[in-house]
Structures are given as structure tokens and as C-alpha cells.
UniProtKB/TrEMBL annotation, chains A, B:
GO process annotations (BP): photosynthesis
Highest taxon of the lineage: Eukaryota
Native organism taxonomy: Eukaryota, Viridiplantae, Streptophyta, Embryophyta, Tracheophyta
InterPro entries per record: ATP_grasp_subdomain_1, PEP-util_enz_mobile_dom, PEP_util_AS, PEP_util_C, PEP_util_CS, Phosphohistidine_dom_sf, PPDK_AMP/ATP-bd, Pyruvate_phosphate_dikinase
PEP-utilising enzyme mobile domain: residues covered: 404-485
Protein name: pyruvate, phosphate dikinase
Cofactor(s) the protein requires to work: Mg(2+)
Organism annotation: Senna tora
Record EC number: 2.7.9.1
Length: 855, 855
């Protein structure tokens, strides 16, 4: 069936009694077939269209060989989602020299020639790619020569002349006459709509918005109605409710004596929809009633186009209306209160991106700054940020201390920069993907970040950033849009996060509906409190290494540990760290009273804890810090250096090689747990061993941890129950999960590393080819952002099945970046995981996504 | 059943009519249970032993409370494989003050006290860990005080005195009396044998030799027979054939009037076994007959121990004899000719290591240089090499050109070093594992290499290598044993590879028996010829990038390609490379006439082709090479640098981002193929796309390759059939193999990369923890050497099943390093792969391993 199908909302509107101009819709499947067939119309489609038109409207004379009955057609995209680049323009299709006479006889000569010249302009521009400016020039010249200002001041004969000039434009531009056969016009237009599905802008839009389930665009062919037949006619667009605020009141624009394209193209400035009430009260009343009917029918806020021709209202299009986060939440709550939808439907009306908007600052008006966008990076952490540029973490802290708002600009960040990153209001990096250090840390804090912005060249030494031929110096103001990746020159006005009672209502529905638990990744007592406030039901990932950077004393002790050659030296350094770790754990246990806290043992390669700089600098700094000889330091650092650190000496490989490290961390956990438990808190510690690939590794670490627990419990005269489990992030672990489950009380998928190893993509280097892969359609999504369900997901399924077969009560969750990405959360819920853990600021999104998949 | 089981060769010898001293054997299962029970004898074992002894020999008075019938016991390891560290010493168990009198009455006082003092020495040393030197001192002092030179000059009363002194040694060393109860002695001895299974030397031996299927050691308890009862007695060891040459002639040593331990411990120098014929012709004749019986029974060359007591021959032990490669091959061929075994059995008598010995030079005598071993690295590529040290690839080439034999010593090698590596006779690196660049390249050439030798510190600038407090300078001689990892000071004598007709015979049997095809990894026409000569049935992996380093012009063209910013610049550089690639492919197709040649598209990250050195050097070198500005070069290099190159911009990611690269390579392949085909060669090209993770990637490359093929065929007016397939080295590819198989005509597992990503181990960095993992038993083997069947193997199985389900005639093979490792080859054959591909020098080993698994 080529006609009908998705996008056929005209037929649907007609079916519920609304006045709709006769027409037909070509299905999205036809578009798909067209693309796959090398841009040929599917067999039989053309005949079907002609037949369809005939059955719809006997009068369509022009297409059926009767130019004296000039009923024109509009051909436009009926895509399920409105997207830029799609051919969404109303055409007066069917006009030519013969038909225009018929039209003149019917509607007057001026109207006929005005329609004709508009049609020539649009058809040329949109269907044949002749630049609009070529037509515009002719119009402007004519107006000057006739001494008039407005288009409406031109007479019928002026317009007739213009028609001739426009036809010459065709000749010059395409070397051929304007196609006057209405059937040819129709065919070209249908193809143009299909082609617009594949336009670069439409592809980019779908990539950015992760729209991959659509087959193509439908095509609406409608008989034209005329909004420009004097003051009893007009045209308008509206939302059934205010899309920005959600207020229940028609929200739209109206133009008297005008066609729809005048509104869309911005040729004339439309009036508030309210005014229509005065001009044509009856049509307005019918419109209001239609809106109510449509909302009841579609159970949603609608985006509507209409035309009034000689006081008769025609509905031209309707679809679900786009809305802001604030609008979405209010509309959902209102519609439940109005009895229009139940909470199961309402929860689906709020999109995860809507929450992102509500939880982070946004720009007041994204369209206002478009001309100031100077570079594009990856939208690494959502929200908007405005500040003065600084180039070092130290400067960020210093300027912040002076009350300044700063944007930290780095080639890439390292754990050493964490202080400065925290002080900054936004972070911009030249390198690194969606899960680079900067991106992960920023998302953890809900701080705006644009990463992997390869357009910029950061020159630290001269404290400038070079973008093309622009040079921006320290202290200059820039703005970042972390939701789009835009880097904007200057200070753009911000609006703050918009929390509301309605949001609380929506979140309470989400919690009622979902089965999946949502925990948070949090490394400090402060993060833990934020997580709890955002509704986290525990901590699914506490990265102990982040604590190591919290102060100078700590990082010095860590470096002593790294430089240690003997186990004794290492133990001595670890003894210095123990009290810091213990006190952090105490704070976290206190904040998470009654909820589980999952603590991961040290994971990153040790060289990450070395200072930044060139080798000589590092060696001399470390020598003065540790009191060791420079050559010893040098040789130790040489030994630590790695070709592929991601696949190197890290994770449990550290704890197995240096058991005293695991012992210290376990000791800190258990001492803190017993102490907080003695203070009356309910402490539920879970120790998680990272980077396990074999059951032997886990057995080694588990037995170490359990023996430390026994010792600490004996020393402190008090014990408590705890769990020991493992991260699953090495593909091998997933493959031998049955054996690993024998040693583990829980599994937590580290989907970042699992994605890295399953794809063989380094998240730090993926920027070199990922953009190409996305643009060529080799990948649908960045797999570090949206879980790869077919590959990584398959491994997660295999692992979960094998693990639960070996240990039926095995707790299984995930704590990678995907834990806060809605489609990934849905996948985790569907395959039966027990929980997801994500950054505190994404907890509400995960709660919502978990509810949406449950309904 | 605790008694009997493996190692019970005594009972077996008795059963075929040989004279064996009565005794019993404790099974290996008992040893395993002992180890698992925290070193406690399994329940009931002790009672079973006593009962067993009673039923075996009623006379064992000492153990059954009758010291007047002094029949002594020997207790020793009966491990299936003789290994260092195992307790393999004959004990006169059962002696004490009472029993010694009975023994004196039976055999004379001198013999009795000599046995007693020997027993005290050995029991103390071996069972209780009292240093042998403490006893030795007493003996030496006594001899001095008595004024005698030889032990045999001591009188009975001297020895009696010595017994008392030895007892004092016990008191001082263990603070307790010598355990005089024979049952206690027996129990301690049995435990000592069990414990010796776990001794560090035995564990190390098993790790090195990849012995993991044994449960433990059996324990042989035998009644003692006495070789030291005058000149009608004696003891000896022999092989039934010469283990070095394979000659069919008894080969052994004999000592008149001596106990076995004298031979083993080297206290007295034994005579050639031939002499025994003169001393005791009848016993010798029986021994000869016994050897024939044993060879017929065990169908193998045997290693035998025996004692003659007063002209009566007693067989003490027999097991399969260890042999050299040369010996193994001759013995196998001879035994088939003698009708002793069929070729299915004979093929199992030649071990893969034997072939290694035959195919590479070896040291004449490995025991001769043990004191000169100055460092140990990884046995990266087998064989022996002797040469003068150089530190740069250029020096290696220059010295080699002067006719010198050189060993190239590097911290680690890079593709730039290939010329020097080829010129060197052996390669030694401080870093890198069994599959580091140096190791892989060296194995490909069959060149000796010791890699990852962390004992050494290479100082390039001063041209010295530091090992502990030794400093070795350029030009000094060293020797490398690539089969053991030993680095030896000085020039050690070599013997050349020992190829023979017998070897050809064995290999022809192997080819007759095996089902698995064996191909070779070869990158040049020369390698291809070597591969064909070694029996390769085609090339399974031709790495196109290795050709890039073959000359200065080539590498310069490659660097131009890398530095290109626009596709046009890149195409221009690629046009320079095309003729080189084409001529290499022509040579390879010519050499492989009639066999398939599998060509892999460019795989490594581009920065591997940059010159070595610090950044400044590279930039200036590249600027002069390419004529580009230094800052352009710098920025381009910056963009190429990667954090984890193994997971970065390489493999098909290059060919998809730069389609012109794939086009050039495909063009070179097809032009060469058509041209050689026109010259009358049978050309079977197969193009292999590396690092595929998604079907979309493969689809992109396959369509590019096929369109180039069409073009070339049209241009050259001739076509031929070819295949396009993919490497499977990314875990994701294995997981979605059904989809990938739709695009691929063959799969070739790249097990190096697959192992890296499945384990998350960088082969360049694994040296940091792998030794610890092996020593702690967390891993049984280096997974880069021996395929990890449980994890990586599981993925290979999943992939093969999914792939063949989607495309039943899919050809599946492997071309990673494991293709030449015997146990891995066996696995690949068992799971039904079609072929393995390995370095030309390992082809015979793979052929043998494939045959062994087939029989």
C-alpha cells in the first residue's frame, strides 16, 4: 500500500469531522523504497497517485486535462517529526499559462498572477534549486521601476510582467523552460519531498536527535485553499497550549489575506492569533472547538496549521507540538488533572531532554546567538555556561576565588585539573570524546562541558585560543551550550534551572511506575547528598581514586605510594592515605544512611597520578616531593609509562600485584562502616573489584577483602554485613560470567570500558573517526553515549544470563555513562537488570526513562 | 582408590615379567587431595599404605614391628614427567639403631653403617631440609682425622662414629632427635614427596613447559635393593636408544658397587654402560632383553633405572625418555620401520618443540653456559644467536654489511627498525611481551629474539647496556637463547639446524593425517617462498604495511600520504605507492602460484610510520622530506597522536575515512593479479579488511573493493575470481558475526588483537603484571602465546557458529600468533576451523600439531 500510512493526519482529521481540503497522502514506506531504488518512484505509485487524486476530488481539472477548472495542489512533507531541511512549503501546484486564466476567471486576475509568480518562485527555489534571490532581485527591480514599496501595491499587469521575468530566470538557471505540465510539476514535487529526506540538514538533525526509527517522509497532496482572497480570508499556525509555559490557551499567529508561506517564510509579520477573533469570530470559534476535539483525539498538545477562505475554516495540518521542558511538565500534569490522560500516558509526554532543560541553566533564546557561534564541539554535558576564558586549572581556581565566572579551556583535561574544573562554570576541550575525562567529570557535577572541539587550537603558553583566523585571549567572554556543543562568542543571557511542583508530581509518578532501581555515581559526601536529593536509591559507583586529588597532602601520599619500590615503602605510603579514605567513606555512609554504597577499588593506571608537564619537570617535582634521587624517579616513571594505558596496569591488576593497596582500601571501608554503624547509621557497604577478566583474579581479591573485614571486625569488636562484587567491563568477564558469579555477590557493568573493548575504540581517540562514521551512517550513534544494544548489549545479556544461572540471586546493574541515557536505560530495564547508576544530575532522567519503559 | 593409578609403572613392569623390587605406588589423586586439604594426608591413606605394604611383602619387618628382618624402603616421586624440584631421591628408609644391627648381620657391618649414614644425610637434607653441607663437613673432618682420601677407605667403626655425628647434626638443626620410628620416617617421606610437587622449582618448570593437566605426583614405595654389596652389585641408568641422535643402541651409565644416588648426585663418576657387559654379562643380557620388552610394551623409547644386587637385576623405574628433536624424529621413523608403531602413533612421538630445535640453530651444550647467563627475558622467538652488540638499526645494517654478526639491543623496536632487525642475527629488547613488535617480526623471520628483558637498561646515547652492576658496551659479544629467554655473556658455540630425510618423512605423515589447512603469514616474495618451502598451502596474512618500510622512497611516499590534509594530496602520495605495492603483490602471487594469497589492507595507526626521535627532530625531518611548513607538520602530528593507539585510528577506520587508501591498495592487488594471471600463473587473491566491528564498515569497504575490481578488470580487459573477507579481531565483530558474514566470504581471526580486547591487555604493557599473574597462578599461560580457550576461544566459537549459520560455505581460519602454537592449533582444529596461518618458520609445527589432534 503506497498511499496512506504514517503522516496521514489529514484523513484522520477528516474522520473526526474537521474540515480538511480534499487530498491524499503518500506513505513513508514509499519514500523508503524511493531511496533504496536509487531515487526512482516505486512501481505503480504514480498511477496510484493519479487515481487517488481523481477519486478524492473529481474537480481536479488541471491534472485530469481540464484547465478550465483550476483547482491547485499543495505538495509538502508529512514527516512524523518536523525537521529542518525537509520540504515543508505549500505550493500552488498546477499553475501554468492556461490554468492561470481559469484561476483569474474564478478569483480575479491580480490574485491569479500573484499566485502564479509566487508559485514560480517557490517551485524554482524548492524543487529545482534555483536561488530564491534571483527571483527576489526581479521583484525588487520591478517595485523600484513602478515606484511602489509593498508587494501588494503591484497591479495585476505588473505581476503578469513579473511572471514573464520569472520564467526567464528559469531559462537562465536551468537552461530550460519552466515545466508547465501540472503532472510533471507534481512528479518533480513529490520527488523533491522524498529527496529532502536525505538533505544534509535533515540527516544532521536526525543524527543529533538520534532519530533512526523513521523510514522516510510521507507526502501530503492537498487541494489548495486560498487565504489570500481578501479580508474574509487568512491563514495561521498555532499550538493548542503555550509550548513554552504549558499554559492552557491557544498560542499562535495569524495573517489576514495571506497564504501560509507568508507566515512560514517571514515575508509579512503575522499578528497574534487573538486578533483573528475580531476579524472572523465564527471561524475562530470553530478553530477553538477543533483544537479541543484534536486534543481529546490525540491526547496531546497539538501544533496546527489552518487557512480561512472566504470565512470558511480549513484545517491543513496537525501534529504533536514541540514544547520546552517547563511546558512539557505542566501540560502533562494539567492533562492528568483535566482527565484527558492517565499518568501512564502522561509520563510519556515528558521527554528526558525536557528534564535536562529543567535541571540545568539554559540560554534565554538559542536563536539569538546563532551568528556568534564560532566553533562546534561535542555536547558533552548539558546546560549553558557563560564566563571568562582561562587556560589553567590554577587560574580557574584563582579567578573563581575573586568571584569571577570562568570557562576553563584546555586541549584535554587530566585528573590534576579537577580543582580548576570544579571552580569553572563551564569546560571546553579541544580533544576527547563524550566520555573523555572532562566530559565524565563535568556530567558528574552537572556542569556544562563542550569536549572534542577540534575547531580550536589551544595555546597554553601564550594564553590564547585560535579558531580559524580568530584569536581569543585570556579574560575574554565566551558562552558554551553543552546541550548542542556550540561555542559562542561573548556573554549570552541565561535563564536559571526551572524546578517546579509540577516536576515533583511527574517524578513521583515515575517512581510509582518504574521497576528499575536508580542509584548514583558519587565520589564525595557532597556528591552523595546531591544524589540523594535527586532521588538516588544508593550509590552504584564510588570511585575511590577521585578522593586522591582532593588535597595536596593526599596526592603527595599517593605519589609516594606510586614511587615505592618495596612493599614496605608502599605500605608506609598507604598508611598515610588510610585516614583520608576512611573519613571520606564515613561522610558518604552518613549521607547514604539506609541505602547501599558501592565502592570501587582503585582503578586507573598509576601514572595518572603523576604531575603534568614534561618528563624533566615531573622528575624534579617528584624528587623534591618524595626525597628520592632523580634517577630513581626517572627509572620508576619509565617503568610506569604505557603504550596503551587503557589496556595496561590498572584495575584489579594493581590490587593483585600490590595486595597492600587492596588491604588499605578494604580497611578504610570497613573501619568507616563499623564506626558509622556504631553512630547509629544503617550502613550497607558493597565493595566492587574493577577490571576483572578471570575468576582467579576475583577470588584473589575477594579473599583478601574478606580477611581484612574479619580483622577489622575483630579489632573493633563489631561487625556488619557487606557484599563483594565485581565490575564487568572486560569482554572476557562477560564470556565466563558463570565462573565469575561464583565469586561475586553482584555484577556492575562498566559500560564505558566494556564499550571501549568490545568495539576496540579508545574513548580518548575516537574523535578521529567517529564523526566520519556518524556522517556516513556507519554508526547510528556514538556508542559511548547511547549503548550499542546489538554488540555490547548482547554481551551484557550473555553475561547476565550466565551469571544468574550460576547464582540466581545475583544482583546485576550498570554504572557506566549509559546509566543516565534514556534509550540505554530502557534497554537495561527490558533485559531485567536490577539497577542503573548514573551521575547525580542524571538520576531524574534515569527515573523517568525507567518509568517510560515500564508503561 | 588412593593407591595405584598413574605413575604405577613398577606394577606394570612386574606384570610383563620383569624383576621389580616389591612395593606400591600412591596415586596422583592422593597428592592432589593432600594439597587441597591443607597438606594433610587423605583420610584412610595411611592405613591403606600400611596394609598395602603388608600384602606386598610379608617380610617388611621394620614397619610391622620386626627389626630383625631389616628390609628397607625407597620412597620417591613417581611423577609422570620428571621435573626439577621433585623429590626423586632413593632413601634407605626404615633404618635406625635397632634395624642397623639386623642389616649388619645380613650384609656386613661396614655396609650397614655406610647405608645408615647415607640415609641420615639424605633424609635430613631432602625430607627435613637440613643442609647437606652440615653432613658433608662432618664426613670431610672425619676423613682428615683418619687420614684417608676416599669414603670407601673409612672403616665400619669410622662410619659408626659418623652416624653419631650425623645424629648430632639433627639435634642442632631441628632441635630434636632424628625420627627413628620407621613409620614416622615413611610418613614424613611421603609428605615430602607430595610437598615437592609444590616446590618453587617444580612450579616454575610446569609454568615454563605449560604443564597444567597433571594432578600431582605419584609416590613410589619400593623395597630397597642394594647395588653396593661388592663387585657383583652395581647400579645404572639408561635410555633404550640414544636420546640425542636416536640411534638404536642402549645409552647409559653404570657404577659398580654403588647405590643409585651416587649416580644421580654425581658423587662418583659413572662408567659407560658398555662396561657392564664385562663385569656381569648375564645381568647385562637380561637388561638388554628387558629394554626390548619395555619398548614393545610402551611403544616408545624408555628411560630406565636399575640395580644389580649380587648379580640379580632389579628394574627400579621406567618412563618415556626425553629426547632431542633429532632423536625424536629418528626414533619415530625407525619405530615405524621396525613395525613397533604405526604412523598415527609415531606422529605423536615428535613434539612441536622438537621441530623448533630442528628448524633453528641451537647451542651445542646448554649446560655449558649456565654460569654466564646474565639476564632472563621472554623466549620470544626460538633458536640461538651469537653476535656483537649494536644499539641502532642503522649500526646493525652497517656492521652486517661489513660481514659482522650482530645482536640488536633496543628498549623496544618499532617498524622503523625493521632493516636493522633483518640484518641482525638476534634481537634483544628490554620491553614488550611475546607479541611485541620485535617478537612478532622476529618469529616471522625465524630469527632468534629475547624480548621484555626487564633486567637490562639500554642506554642508547652512550651505547651501553647495564645489567645490575655489569656494563656491556657496543661491540662486545653476547649470545641469546630465544627458546629459553637466556641472555649469555660471550660467544657460545652453536650447532646448525638439523634438517634430515627423517624429518621429511615425519612431515609427510603429518600432511597425510591432518584435516586442517596450514597457511603462512608472509609479507614479501622472499617470505612467500620460504613459506611454500616449509609446506604452507597459501598465505593467510600478507600485511601490506610491512612493504612500506622496504625502501627510503617508499617510506617517504607513505609519510607524504600521512601528512596530506586534502584527499587530493593524499591521492597524489598514494599514486607514488601504487607501483611498489603492485610489484610486491606480483612477486607474492608468482611465488604462491596455485595457492590463495590473503592480503590485509593497511592496519596500523598512521603515526607508526613517522620517524623515531623526539618531536622536534621528527618535525624537522618531516619538513625537509615533504617540503611542508614545520608548523603544519607539527599540527598534523599533534592530530595523529593517540592515547591508546591500539584502540584508535587504524584498520578499516583508515580506509573508511580515506577511501582513496583502500582504492589504491585494491587497485594494486587487482592489477598485480591480472598481470600475473596473464603471465600464466594461477592467482587466487583474497582481500581482507582489518578491524571490522560492524557490518556497515565491511559493506562500505567491500563495495569500494568490488568497484575497483570492476574498473581494473575493464581497464585491463581481463578478469579473475577473488574473495573479500574480514579479520575478526574486535569482540563486537564476533558478537554480530551473523550480520558480518552476510558481507564477508571469509573470516580470519586476528587472535592477537582479539586477545588484547577480550582480556583488556595491551600486549605492549602486559609485562607489568603478567609475570605476577603467572607466578600467582591467576593465569596458566601467557594468553598471547597460548590461546585462551575459555574466553577468547568461546568468542571464536560463537563467531564461527553465527557466521556459518548466516553463510554456510563461509571459510573460517586464524592468522594471529596462535596459528603456530601447538595447543592452540589443536583447539582450532577441534572447533572445525578451515585453516590456520602462522609465520613461515612455524608452518611445520602447525602441520604437526594439526596431525596430532587428528589422530
Amino acid at each position: 500500500m503506497q498511499l496512506g500510512g504514517k503522516g496521514a493526519n489529514l484523513a484522520e482529521m477528516a474522520s473526526i469531522g474537521l474540515s480538511v481540503p480534499p487530498g491524499l497522502t503518500i506513505s513513508t514506506e514509499a519514500c523508503q523504497e524511493y531511496q533504496q531504488n536509487g531515487k526512482k518512484l516505486p512501481d505503480g505509485l504514480w498511477e496510484e497517485i493519479l487515481e487517488g487524486l481523481q477519486s478524492v476530488e473529481k474537480e481536479i481539472g488541471a491534472f485530469l486535462g481540464n484547465p478550465s477548472k483550476p483547482l491547485l495542489l499543495s505538495v509538502r512533507s508529512g514527516a512524523a517529526i518536523s525537521m529542518p531541511g525537509m520540504m515543508d512549503t505549500v505550493l500552488n501546484l498546477g499553475l501554468n499559462d492556461e490554468v492561470v486564466d481559469g484561476l483569474a476567471a474564478k478569483c480575479g486576475e491580480r490574485f491569479a498572477y500573484d499566485s502564479y509568480r509566487r508559485f514560480l518562485d517557490m517551485f524554482g527555489d524548492v524543487v529545482l534549486g534555483i536561488p530564491h534571490t534571483l527571483f527576489e532581485e526581479k521583484l525588487e527591480k520591478l517595485k523600484i521601476s513602478k515606484g511602489v514599496k509593498l508587494d501588494t501595491d503591484l497591479t495585476a499587469s505588473d505581476l503578469k510582467e513579473l511572471v514573464q521575468q520569472y520564467k526567464n530566470v528559469y531559462l537562465q538557471a536551468i537552461g530550460d523552460n519552466f515545466p508547465s505540465d501540472p503532472k510533471k510539476q507534481l512528479e518533480l514535487s513529490v520527488k523533491a519531498v522524498f529527496n529532502s529526506w536525505d538533505s544534509p540538514r535533515a540527516i544532521k538533525y536526525r543524527n543529533i536527535n538520534q532519530i533512526s526509527n523513521l523510514k522516510g517522509t510521507a507526502v501530503n497532496i492537498q487541494t489548495m485553499v486560498f487565504g489570500n482572497m481578501g479580508n474574509t480570508s487568512g491563514t495561521g499556525v498555532l499550538f493548542t497550549r503555550n509550548p513554552s509555559t504549558g499554559e492552557k490557551k491557544l498560542y499562535g499567529e495569524f495573517l489576514l489575506n495571506a497564504q501560509g508561506e507568508d507566515v512560514v517564510a517571514g515575508i509579512r509579520t503575522p499578528e497574534d492569533l487573538e486578533n483573528m477573533k475580531t476579524y472572523m469570530p465564527e471561524a475562530y470559534k470553530e478553530l477553538e472547538e477543533n483544537c479541543e476535539i484534536l486534543e481529546k483525539h490525540y491526547k496531546d498538545m497539538m501544533d496546527i496549521e489552518f487557512t480561512v477562505q472566504e470565512n470558511r475554516l480549513w484545517m491543513l495540518q496537525c501534529r504533536s507540538g514541540k514544547r520546552t521542558g517547563k511546558g512539557a511538565v505542566k501540560i502533562a500534569v494539567d492533562m492528568v488533572n483535566e482527565g484527558l490522560v492517565d499518568i501512564r500516558s502522561a509520563i510519556k509526554m515528558v521527554e528526558p531532554q525536557h528534564l535536562d532543560q529543567l535541571l540545568h541553566p539554559q540560554f534565554e533564546d538559542e536563536s539569538a546567538y546563532k551568528d556568534n557561534v564560532i566553533a562546534m564541539g561535542l555536547p558533552a554535558s548539558p546546560g549553558a555556561a557563560v564566563g571568562q576564558i582561562v587556560f589553567t586549572a590554577d587560574d580557574a581556581e584563582a579567578w573563581h576565588a575573586q568571584g569571577k565566572s570562568v570557562i576553563l579551556v584546555r586541549t584535554e583535561t587530566s585528573p590534576e585539573d579537577v580543582g580548576g574544573m570544579h571552580a569553572a562554570t563551564g569546560i571546553l576541550t579541544a580533544r576527547g570524546g563524550m566520555t573523555s575525562h572532562a566530559a565524565v567529570v563535568a556530567r558528574g557535577w552537572g556542569k556544562c562541558c563542550v569536549s572534542g572541539c577540534s575547531d580550536i587550537l589551544v595555546n597554553d603558553s601564550e594564553k590564547v585560543v585560535v579558531i580559524g583566523d580568530k584569536v581569543i585571549s585570556e579574560g575574554e567572554w565566551i558562552s558554551l551550550n553543552g546541550s548542542t556543543g556550540e561555542v559562542i562568542l561573548g556573554k549570552q543571557p541565561l535563564s536559571p534551572p526551572a524546578l517546579s511542583d509540577d516536576l515533583e508530581t511527574v517524578m513521583s509518578w515515575a517512581d510509582e511506575l518504574r521497576h528499575l532501581k536508580v542509584m548514583a555515581n558519587a565520589d564525595t559526601p557532597e556528591d552523595a547528598i546531591a544524589a540523594r536529593n535527586n532521588g538516588a536509591q544508593g550509590i552504584g559507583l564510588c570511585r575511590t581514586e577521585h578522593m586522591f586529588f582532593a588535597s595536596d597532602e593526599r596526592i603527595k601520599a599517593v605519589r609516594k605510594m606510586i614511587m615505592a619500590v618495596t612493599p614496605e615503602q608502599r605500605k608506609a605510603a598507604l598508611d598515610l592515605l588510610l585516614p583520608y579514605q576512611r573519613s571520606d567513606f564515613e561522610g558518604i555512609f552518613r549521607a547514604m544512611d539506609g541505602f547501599p554504597v558501592t565502592i570501587r577499588l582503585l582503578d586507573p593506571p598509576l601514572h595518572e597520578f603523576l604531575p603534568e608537564g614534561d618528563l624533566e619537570q615531573i622528575v624534579s617535582e617528584m624528587a623534591s616531593e618524595t626525597g628520592m634521587k632523580e634517577e630513581e624517579i626517572f627509572s620508576r616513571i619509565e617503568k610506569l609509562s604505557e603504550v596503551n594505558p587503557m589496556l595496561g596496569f590498572r584495575g584489579c591488576r594493581l590490587g593483585i600485584s600490590y595486595p597492600e593497596l587492596t588491604e588499605m582500601q578494604a580497611r578504610a571501608v570497613f573501619q568507616a562502616a563499623v564506626s558509622m554503624s556504631n553512630h547509629g547509621f544503617t550502613v550497607l557497604p558493597e565493595i566492587m573489584v574493577p577490571l576483572i577478566g578471570t575468576p582467579q583474579e576475583l577470588r584473589h581479591q575477594v579473599s583478601l577483602i574478606r580477611s581484612v573485614a574479619e580483622k577489622v571486625f575483630a579489632e573493633m569488636g563489631s561487625s556488619l554485613s557487606y557484599k563483594v562484587g565485581t565490575m564487568i567491563e572486560v569482554p572476557r568477564a562477560a564470556l565466563v560470567a558463570d565462573q565469575i558469579a561464583k565469586e561475586a555477590e553482584f555484577f556492575s557493568f562498566g559500560t564505558n570500558d566494556l564499550t571501549q573493548m568490545t568495539f576496540g575504540y579508545s574513548r580518548d581517540d575516537v574523535g578521529k573517526f567517529l564523526p566520519i562514521y556518524l556522517s556516513k551512517g556507519i554508526l547510528q550513534n556514538d556508542p559511548f553515549e547511547v549503548l550499542d544494544q546489538k554488540g555490547v548489549g548482547e554481551l551484557i545479556k550473555i553475561c547476565t544470563e550466565k551469571g544468574r544461572a550460576a547464582r540466581p540471586n545475583l544482583k546485576v546493574g550498570i554504572c557506566g555513562e549509559h546509566g543516565g541515557e534514556p534509550s540505554s536505560v530502557a534497554f537495561f530495564a527490558q533485559i531485567g537488570l536490577d539497577y542503573v547508576s548514573c551521575s547525580p544530575f542524571r538520576v531524574p532522567i534515569a527515573r523517568l526513562a525507567a518509568a517510560q519503559v515500564a508503561v
